[in-house]
Amino acid sequence: MSNQAEFQAVRTTIVRNERFIWIADELKPGLFSEEVEPAQLARVEADDTAMHGWRAVRDAEIGSLESRELGKGQSVIADFGDHRVGYLSFEVRPVGSPPDAPLKLRMTFGEMPVEMAVPFASYDGSLSSSWLQEETLYVDVLPGKVSLPRRYSFRYVKLEVLDTSPKYRVSFFNLKCMTVTSADRANVIPFDHVDPLLRDIDRISVRTLEDCMQDVFEDGPKRDRRLWLGDLRLQALANYATFRNEALVKRCLYLFAGVSDERGRVSANLFIAPELIADDTYLFDYSLFFTVTLYDYYEATGDRDTLQELWPTARRQVELALERLDDSGIVRDEETWWSFIDWHESLNKQAPSHAVLIYALRRAIRLAEAVDCGSVGEFGRRLADAERAAVESLWDSEQGLFVSGEGRQVSWAAQIWMALAEVLPSEENRTLMRRLLSTKPDIAPTTPYMYHHLAEALLVVGLKDEAVDLVKQYWGGMLKNGADTFWELYDPGNPDFSPYGSPLINSYCHAWSCTPAYLIRRYGL
Amino acid sequence: MSNQAEFQAVRTTIVRNERFIWIADELKPGLFSEEVEPAQLARVEADDTAMHGWRAVRDAEIGSLESRELGKGQSVIADFGDHRVGYLSFEVRPVGSPPDAPLKLRMTFGEMPVEMAVPFASYDGSLSSSWLQEETLYVDVLPGKVSLPRRYSFRYVKLEVLDTSPKYRVSFFNLKCMTVTSADRANVIPFDHVDPLLRDIDRISVRTLEDCMQDVFEDGPKRDRRLWLGDLRLQALANYATFRNEALVKRCLYLFAGVSDERGRVSANLFIAPELIADDTYLFDYSLFFTVTLYDYYEATGDRDTLQELWPTARRQVELALERLDDSGIVRDEETWWSFIDWHESLNKQAPSHAVLIYALRRAIRLAEAVDCGSVGEFGRRLADAERAAVESLWDSEQGLFVSGEGRQVSWAAQIWMALAEVLPSEENRTLMRRLLSTKPDIAPTTPYMYHHLAEALLVVGLKDEAVDLVKQYWGGMLKNGADTFWELYDPGNPDFSPYGSPLINSYCHAWSCTPAYLIRRYGL
């Protein structure tokens, strides 16, 4: 997920817990590196049937790169064969007379063919153009070796000669990428599946998670590159089922707890460099996911010490969320981006947010029991109240669906989160999800993040076949459309959708999209 | 001077003299560094009366830089108060919310206001656009310090925020330049002059030379940055009268001699990095200037060892030039760029080149005498023949001027070089120059390089007042037009002249323009 200007900037005072930050620093992971060479040279072709209208096709074997002599205006695309996160280097030599002017070069990095085809200069989206991965650089001394200092997230890289001089051309060689990740592939729980599509979906999920695992769990290695709580929660779940890097989850929890605000609230996301900073974005659901992520962590590891130490922070998120309840006991709605839930522009956040509160409360109570905290009783009463209020105020018995906000909006998100929160008895919960699938409300999921919750809700109510179908259709759809890693955004009915106004800026390796590995393995799909 | 595509590329075999190259390497100078801060913030204003139509004016004191908060599309120009050659660094901090996207920044360096005003993207000249000094860079971590690895030649630098994000702006501070030169200011021969204009011209000449003195004598620190023989000869003369870095001249002579071709010919220019390479450009006059430069070096230093060792190379240039004489004993003319002389497009090179041969022969004979070489007699005869042929074939007694080429072109260059070569007896030589000044042929000097030879020719024939007037008008003209250092190109009648098609690419600190310090001091102007 990514910040936008519309997010409410809140002035707040951060209370640094130096012990928490010290513990997080101690847990900073080493990175695994691998030197990877391109698989082939590629070119992009316009193709209406391809994602965003562009397809990459084989141009030549990679061995032919060195023999290509490029002059002003000429370019070549190297295809690294799979998604890569790392550092690029290459060597370049002059061909012709001694170089009597510097080489001016543009390098364009792309996770998808569209990034190789559509000029970045045409970008006019809402997110900063500075996320578009390109470099313009000069090589003063030829032959020379260039090692780019920035990290890129890409499969394709275009080398474009902007200028040489009429007296020489250049050729490139030793092009390679030094990949980085804090995921240890040797530690992945082996997995196979009789269904080749689910096997592929699992493999790509694992790869997506791997490329997002860096100093912290990043949301996307191409863009944002930050630690978001909503993404962290899902990455942690996929991680327990695959790489089992529990220390990295612990680190991220301590980072969030290390910079809560004066009311004890954790931020929606953190900046890690040059120093730990809590972003001034606070989201109702994301703060609660601190509690949920701690719950999942404790379930996966049984690490009581961490639970003990972070419990006050986890409890506090629930207390603050409860303060938001109105007279009818429902989470107060607001015009601004007070809660995330999904990218859908018209989505009302009240009902799904209320469900997230119930979902988190339920888990907070189990944690309170584990640490023998006096909040158990109070939290139990509040949970019962919140559930009752949900049914009284948000349940539309005529439609048999939950409604949200003043406009009594019926959204997929509201039903999904109410199902995950298990507000209704088991049988009715299953009926709710069945009704959702049959009535198909207009306000539908727009992101893999929401589709994950849909799939898990189906599993929670026991609709496993429907969940399998969904995973195969949705994540399988990305796969069919050329995904090497799963995307930030994929709307099968509107494949060009970008909440930012351009598919160029979308992230095509995005943490919240990596959950099929968790769903498939955990629920035995 | 600078290579152009029209230069003839000649396939030739280089014979490396490892001893010469070793000696040159041993003489590689250390560089003097100084940390310089900008003098003020500036802005550029359109002004028809200013050079290239743009004037830089004070905008604010430099101390106000840090308080400027720049968002997307905003920029600031720092004025370093004088011409600088060196490395730029600055710090940048975010203002507003934590930076949720990289900072994308463009830096544009300019020796002249025009470079701050006219977008480089509009450049469409004949030289590579890669010489235009700009960088597009990303700062991923803020606050941050940026130290640019390339060397720039500039007075002005524009910092332009291409993108941040709607959540933050940036401010810059600690902007500075670490200058580099191999010229030791402490070693400059002190000089004063009662005429303030000549004093200023001398000062700017010295500064021009200083900024061109690096690992070698560069022709221009902004563009080309190479060791050209024609520039070296003039820089060496100015250097003897000012910085007295004789070792640097010696180094450059050994570099040229170290990579002559299989016939013993020295190249017009050398590339120094990543290794010594002789350019494939050979020019009749430039090769002869090796001999002349060795002569001047020996005159200035009395270094007999160097003379002895380099004499065979110096002699060889003369021998090769003599091979170019046709049946009438005149240097053979050609369509291509076989000899430089000046940038004038219509200039015929035959007569001035023949004069350069005579000029060089005369000095070669003195060197031959000094090393007691058997060539003395032969060279003496060839000199007499060349002088006689010049008078017989190139002297137009009706006009009282020398003519050049099949078209019998009357150019300033032909008269100037014939005067410098002292082909005519002393009194007639003075008459020749007087006639040149009064007849003003159309084919006039276009570069400071040619103007230098005009001034020195006036001094050689004893027209000192005319030489002083010329220096004050020509170099004083650049000064009046805002020169901090003297330029590669200045045509008072056509100030926008660029042989490359755009004043953006001209070099405004150019070695061949630094000679007034030599003329003023050596001839006591």
From TrEMBL, chains A, B:
Residue span(s) of domain Glycosyl hydrolase family 78 alpha-rhamnosidase N-terminal: 38-178
Keyword Transcription regulation: no
Domain Alpha-L-rhamnosidase six-hairpin glycosidase span(s) in chain numbering: 195-520
Keywords, ordered alphabetically: Hydrolase
InterPro entries in alphabetical order: 6-hairpin_glycosidase_sf, 6hp_glycosidase-like_sf, Bac_rhamnosid6H, Glyco_hydro_78_N
Taxonomic superkingdom: Bacteria
Molecular function terms from GO: hydrolase activity
Keyword Hydrolase part of the UniProt annotation: yes
Gene3D superfamilies: 1.50.10.10
PANTHER family for this protein: ALPHA-L-RHAMNOSIDASE C-TERMINAL DOMAIN-CONTAINING PROTEIN, C, PUTATIVE (AFU_ORTHOLOGUE AFUA_3G02880)-RELATED
Name of the protein in question: Sugar hydrolase
Species of origin: Cohnella cellulosilytica
